[in-house]
Amino acid sequence: MTEDIDSEMDETDLAILRSLMKNARTTISKMSQEIDVPDATISHRLKRLERAVIKGYTVILDPETVGLEMTAIIIIQTETEKHGAVKIALSKLEEVSEVYSVSGEYDLLIKLWAHDMEELNHVINSKIRSVDGVDDLTEMIVMERVKEEIVPLIE
Q1: Which has more pLDDT, 16 or 64?
Q2: What topology does CATH give the domain 70-141?
Q3: By the 8 A CB rule, do 54 and 6 touch?
Q4: pLDDT higher than threshold 70 for residue 45
Q5: pTM score
């Protein structure tokens, strides 16, 4: 939590978050009915959550519908002194949706999207491998998305 939430979130806060995670376009009035809490309470709580917990509202695309047929997970070893620069460079690639620093034999894990195998190969070989400080990488092509969601609300 951040300092804007001065106490633990309660069941009303969690219910508001669950409602927004199902449909971020839901109205305060509809949330009020679903949660059985007055509109004013929902509005106040929502403003507080937006300051402290909710990072933003977004659209989640269906990858295939927008033509992104290929997804790859790539683990990368970096030169130690260039690790920070590699993270930044990879974060700027439009095809990369996620970049994580990880422990173990590899230093970074990224998620990469492409329209087809040719584009995927181009991005890996021309963009990622050419980043100064990328020492080695292993790519794994996603065969099936079994579960892919936004950050879950785990109690």
Answers
A1: 16
A2: Alpha-Beta Plaits (3.30.70)
A3: no
A4: yes
A5: 0.80
